[in-house]
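Supplementary Note 3. Input sequence used for the single-chain structure prediction.
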Amino acid sequence: MPRRSILLFAGFCIALAIGVATATVLTVRDREESTAAPVTSTGQPSVGGPFQLVDQDGRTVDQTLLNGKWSLVFFGFTYCPDFCPTTLAALEATKKQLGARADDVQIVFISVDPARDTPQSLKDYLSSDGFPTGVVGLTGSEAQVKAAADAYRAYFQKVGEGEGYTMNHSLTVYLMGPDGKFRTALAHDLGPERAAQLIERTMARG
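The predicted structure, written as discrete structure tokens, is reproduced below.
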């Protein structure tokens, strides 16, 4: 084979080898990047925020009542036949699972039925046997309740007319940190043991 042809062929082989090597490096690097731990955002979802309501003792309160404690916030109403009393009982069991850490947790029950849930009605309801002690019950005007629900992205709707109406509402329990900001959500059917584990893990992260 002529010398020029040999040199051209050798150059082609070298270029081909470099191309293959480069492609191999890029493939390996892409594979490593795709299997690396995903980058997660440190931002928190837009849940929670300013509100002004009235507690079961008739005192005007705002979002600062969440400061300094871990708070389990959920929306319901005292005439609720099933989910609200079940949720309160489950949260009582959850606090028992937390042991000594339960002292760092408060439960905040926000009524979506301000027409019937006066402060006194809330106080009587939350004093029922089987419910957690120290629950903070909140109510207010329709506009105040709607503003609070909107801040937490909580859904509620009046169903029916007359004295026998009921309220549809979301069932999520919101775990708020001692800084008053949202940390995580607890499904209503999570169960006390798993709920306590989730709360403890979230507390450990701060």
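The mean pLDDT is 81. Residues 3-35 form the longest helix (33 residues).
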